Structures are given as structure tokens and as C-alpha cells.
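writing this on my phone so excuse typos. first protein, seq and then structure
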Amino acid sequence: MSTLWTPEGEHRVPREGTGEPSQAPPSKADDDGGAYSADDDGGAFDIDPETGLPIDPRTGEPFDPEELAEMQEGLREAQEQLVSVPAAEIVQNHMMGLFELAALHLQRDPPDLAEARLPIDALGLLVDHLADQLPAGETLRGALQQIRLAYVEIHKRQSEA
């Protein structure tokens, strides 16, 4: 099952042509004829037992089939756009996101070393194992060195205070 993000939240999108979630078949939510729920780990949309359509959590009514088709098309377009970009660029972008996340935690007042440590360690693992396969591998190595140095300097200042 795929999801589609909108300003109102994330929405599950059933597979094309089924009108229902593709994971598990719906399971009855209660014994008095209430809505059905798909039983997957993500808490899929409730399913209207009369129409078999997912229920829009914003309205409590089944989704309009045309709206579902639009969401599916939007998801397909997003997926096509994603696969049109080389995987190395996307991986590099995520790695720089880890750098930026660590930097944000280090820039807080006071700096949050505990929260900065995980993205720094994750970036380190990725750089150690993937930098040679990425066009920006050397840039990522430099970014990792910079963020590690910043972490050590901040840690030292906090220890001295």
C-alpha cells in the first residue's frame, strides 16, 4: 500500500482498480456493523462496509472514487519523478540532510549533543561505506569531518563550563 502526503495529512492509496487497500483484507472493527479496518502495521484507512471504499478521516465519509483516482495518479507521477533522478543524487541528498539535522541540534541554545550524535554517526556509517560510489563522496567526507569537529568543540566547551 502506498501513501500520499497532503496538507491535511498522509493518506493511504489503494492499488489501482481495487478500491480497497492491497495489504490485508478488511477486518471487522466491531460486532454491530461498524466500519472495517485494514489490518496492517500502519493503521490503514477504515473501509466502508457498504461501498468497500476507504473512509476519508477528514469527513468520515467514503472517499470519492474520482478523488482516489486523482490520488493514485499523483502518487504515480511522484514515483516517476523520483525514479527519474539517479539514486546517487537522492542518497547524497539524504546524507546532507543528516549533516543538516546534526548541525541544527548543535546550533541550539544550549547545543543538544545527544540528539546530534545519531545523525553524525549515521552519516559516518554512510560515508564510510558509500562515499567511493557517490559523485560527491569527497564533499561528504569533508562535511562529516566538519560536523564531527564542531561536535567535539562544543562537547569540550560544555565540559569546561
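second protein below, same order as before
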Amino acid sequence: MQDLASAPRADRLRAVVTEAARSWRAARDGGLPAQPSLYCALERSDCGLLAPAFDSVMRLCERCLDRSMCVGCPLARASDETLIGDLVADPAQAQALFACEADHPSPLSQAFICALRSTRIMLEETLAG
């Protein structure tokens, strides 16, 4: 991962999320536990302790999508990486994903939005260091 210390905060946040998503997907595809891989990837940005939070976000995202996330396109960020980065950067955007549930939100969508918000708060605090 590049040195993110001088990057704008939103760029740093999205870079960490992208790294987390790619690491998580690689571990899951390889049949490995995700959290140790996440820890190693996130620790490069001093965010290793957020591995459980990112594990929850990724798992809940896949449950909401009802499919595996697609990550790691060598030419550009995959749409799922962009989606997760955007949602962690601004969890309020998740409300639009579940607009059809506005009157009766499902427990799954509520858990996902809560995980996004808490991960955002912890990531902001960690990056502000």
C-alpha cells in the first residue's frame, strides 16, 4: 500500500477500505480465516485492530448483496470496492440502498448500516491518530 500520510482524508479512508476488501476476499477465497489476513493488511496503515470491524462489514455486505463481493480488478477499482469505500466514507448513502425498506427495515440492513457507521467512526479516529 502507498504511503497515505499525506493523502486527503477521504482518499486515505477509501485506500484502507480497498486494501481491506481485497485482503478479506483473498482470505475467504483461499479458505483462510479472514481476520488474521485483514489484520496484516490493515496494520500497514496502523489500522490492524479494526480487522473485526471490517470482517463484519464485508460479511454483512455479502449477505445484503446475496452474492460474493467482486474485488481486485488490476485496471481499476471493482464496483464492489467502490461501493464499500463510498458506504464507509458516508454511511448515510446506505439508506438509499434500502429505500424499499424505509417503513420496515430488515434486521440485516439495520445491522449493515450500524456496522458501516461504527467502522467509519473507528477508522476516522485511527487515521486521525
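Residues 1-6 have pLDDT under 50 and may be disordered. thats all i got for now
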